[in-house]
Specification:
Helix content: 55-70%
Strand content: under 5%
Shape: elongated
Distance between the termini: 54 Å
CATH superfamily of the largest domain: lambda repressor-like DNA-binding domains
CATH architecture of the largest domain: Orthogonal Bundle
Length: 119
């Protein structure tokens, strides 16, 4: 077993191919240990190389509204009235801490997805 750091796309592709070969390895075997080490290296490389930006808070709200079949009117108690919903959803006004809490508590939108636009 010769394991080296994953430094580029070629190393990454080779590691993935080897992982595929080792998928049926027994956990405590040398192949199983190689699989475990390679999976850790691939995870570290992916975390560094393939970052995913958090969604825009308004897009997160729109997505959850669509999932739950909600309208803008349903947001009024959470954001503070029709005009406030309009201002927030059009990007003219940032979300306040209380609005973020309300959206998180009632719509289960993660705080991380809502914090990009704190007033």
């Amino acid at each position: 077993m010769k394991i080296t750091p994953i430094r580029n796309e070629s190393d990454y592709t080779q590691a993935l191919a080897r992982i595929e070969q080792l998928m049926d390895a027994a956990p405590d075997s040398p192949e199983g240990e190689e699989l475990d080490v390679l999976a850790t290296l691939v995870d570290a490389y992916e975390s560094k190389s393939f970052t995913i930006d958090a969604p825009d808070p308004i897009e997160a709200i729109r997505f959850r509204m669509e999932q739950m079949g909600l309208t803008r009117r349903d947001l009024e108690p959470l954001l503070g009235g029709r005009s406030r919903v309009s201002e927030v959803m059009s990007g003219k006004r940032s979300l306040s801490i209380q609005q973020i809490r309300n959206l998180h508590d009632r719509l289960q939108i993660p705080y991380d997805n809502l914090m990009g636009d704190v007033a």
